[in-house]
Amino acid sequence: MAPQQMWWCVQLASVLALAGTARGAHAPLARGLAPRTVRLRLSAIRASDPPPPSRTLADSLREETEAPFRKPRLFLYVAAAGSAGIGGAVTLANLVGALASGVRLEDLAEPLRNLAIDAVGLVGAGALIKGDLDSQQKRMARLEAGRRLARLRVRLQRPSDTSTVSMSDLRSGRGRDSRVVIVLGARDVIEASLATAEPLSSSLRERDLLVVPAALDGGRRLAAEPPAHAQGLPHVALPTGAGEWAEYIAEVEGARLEAQGIDLKTQAVAVVLKKNGRVGQRALVDEAQGGVPWGALIGDVDRRSNAGMDVTNI
Asked: Torsions phi, psi of 144, nearest 5?
């Protein structure tokens, strides 16, 4: 095959690879646009990335399940980058040979244009590869944060159940189905939220809402004594296992919130877990408004139920 024919074959392969993968590159984004089903009248916290994850086999398998076309996309991106790189190398070699043989500069317009196309293709393929790998890293970080959250343990205070269970035990279908609301941060803000929740205890329990007050000791560890309005109440579960909670707060929630300028020594956040174990929302608690708006949470569950929407996993 002549060099010019080879060059055109390389260009065609590069264009086909990039065109064939453009649609797949947006698949994870489309899934990420699903609307949230739990809404709070709180000051919303801007999302940010958790710390880098420690990969486990389970996390890797789940990540591949969430992004099943990532590896084929990466293969095509690498193929496109290789095609553009080879094409550029061939064109560059031809240019060097032409210059050495004394070809006029005006005759090099087309090879220079082809070299520019190869360079753009190589940069574009590299950007697609980087974007896909960054998305994978974010998914792995989210899965690792979820795994740590699922391991946190609480002690129930229900009349017929005072067991110590993990967050994963409170998921739908495991006998203790609960919508967990973790209120994390300053003791006074948490106590204000608990005080407004106490009169609504029956309503919260009927909607499977379980409050977990995680008051801190001024740093990133749980306080030795639970806050007021927390002990002996069936709608409240007390956090246990100070070491695991401290690790989660320091490496996941604390790092996330510190990056956003939120100080857990004087502020508090509400982390709402749906019955399927996923985080529904993280929001800053407004102490001036009485803490967490429990009425809004109760009303949201009622609206979903009255509309015939799913309340088993949400």
From this structure: -65, -40
Instruction: Count how many Cα atoms sit within 13 Å of the Cα of residue 308 in the half-sphere of its side chain.
Output: 0
Sequence-ordered alpha helix ranges (H) in 23-108: 27-32, 57-66, 70-100
Would you call 227 exposed, middle or buried from its count of C-beta atoms within 10 A (0-12, 13-18, 19+)? buried
pLDDT for position 192: 92
The neighbour count for residue 74, using CB atoms within 10 Å, is 16
Comparing 121-135, 174-188, 213-227, 245-259, which segment has the lowest mean pLDDT? Answer: 245-259
Q: Is 46 exposed, middle or buried (0-12, 13-18, 19+ CB in 10 A)?
A: exposed
- Measured between alpha carbons, how far is 209 from 179 in angstroms, rounded to an integer? 5
pLDDT the model gives residue 63:
61
Predicted confidence (pLDDT) at residue 126 exceeds the cutoff of 50: yes
What are the residues whose beta carbons fall under 8 Å from the beta carbon of 51, sequence distance 6 or more?
141, 251, 252, 255
Residue 178: what pLDDT? 93
Residues 69 and 158: beta-carbon distance below 8 Å: no
**pTM score above 0.70:** no
**Whole-angstrom Cα Rg for the chain:** 27
Burial 253-270 (b: 16+ CB within 10 A, else e): bbbbbeeeebebeebbbb
Centroid of chain to Cα 71: 20
Give Cα separations from 245 to 150, 155, 180, 190, 221 (angstroms): 11, 13, 15, 17, 7
Tokens matching residue 41:
């009248």
